[in-house]
Write a structure and sequence with these properties.
By secondary structure, the chain is α/β, with parallel strands linked by helices. The protein has 5 helices and 14 strands. The protein binds guanosine-5'-triphosphate and magnesium ion.
Amino acid sequence: MFIDYAEIEVRAGNGGPGCISFHREKYVSKGGPDGGDGGRGGDIIFIADSNLTTLLDFRYKTKYSSENGHPGEGSLKTGKSGKSTTIRVPAGTIMRNLDTGDVIADLSREGQEIVVAQGGRGGHGNDYFKSATNQTPRTAEDGRPGDYVRLGLELKLLADVGLVGLPNAGKSTVLARFSAARPKIADYPFTTLIPNLGIVRLREYKAFVMADIPGIIEGASKGKGLGIEFLKHIQRTRLIVYLIDVFEGNIEKTLQVLKNELGDFDSDLLKRPFLVVLNKIDLLDDVTLKLVSKKVSPNYIFFSAATGKGEKELLTRIENELDREK
Ligand SMILES: Nc1nc2c(ncn2[C@@H]2O[C@H](COP(=O)(O)OP(=O)(O)OP(=O)(O)O)[C@@H](O)[C@H]2O)c(=O)[nH]1
Ligand SMILES: [Mg+2]
């Protein structure tokens, strides 16, 4: 499981101070107290947004606060409340109070909202303190402090798309092409030792998570190569992309090898929607390319992670599959 994690501090607004004031009017002497209460401080509110996919922003901005309540005023005017701050987090974010360790919220549903820190109540103005024995109170209260909470945010990132292929097929190159992830890429097998994850943005509010995992060889389920323990990282992906080097002598056989290994690990993986992508087409001349395309299923996608040729079709096909799965 990939986990995105961030620690932040939030501070709700303090209540505004109460006001000390006495009623003043021409020809009226000794007006009574009329200091109003301070306004409430603003809250800190979190809301789940399924368009967001990472907690990355929270590593850059770690402190959040809300406006304090405004002071009370004469003529019994209550101060204005401070503005609350609403913070959007990816749906699926779990929030923990770092000081107590308690889980405060599990914002799993889109639009779900929670007030994590409450603004302080405003202080009473002097009008509040008048009594039979004290008709001219000269005291007012300060506002109460707003809540301060240290929060741990945790997001389990589930890959939507898993790249599966023999070593050297170009899986890491694909991830690097489409996302900001920078996995190691090299011209030898087993470059990737642990899964990498990247976010592929399709357009402003549409993105998916792609996982690049180590190469798989025949017998991997029996421990050959790097084994297949890491396949657990794609167990919950919604789409599997088999990436095959177009130079492979026998594309169908390679596909079968990959499927067999996946099936040995978890037969459910074979029921998952999948695409077959033939990579490195930049290395073929047009004539050879045509010959290959006649030999394989018309559903296969021809692509070059190096030049980007065919990327529009690939991304459209991935998007269609993911939309269908929702
Ligand atoms: N010409 C060409 N070379 C490519 C293309 N895609 C990847 N390569 C090269 O193929 C080699 C292997 O690429 P990687 O992305 O490391 O392959 P991988 O599938 O992640 O390999 P492992 O992590 O070892 O399983 C590198 O030298 C890449 O530069 C492509 O579309 N065209
Ligand atoms: Mg790799």
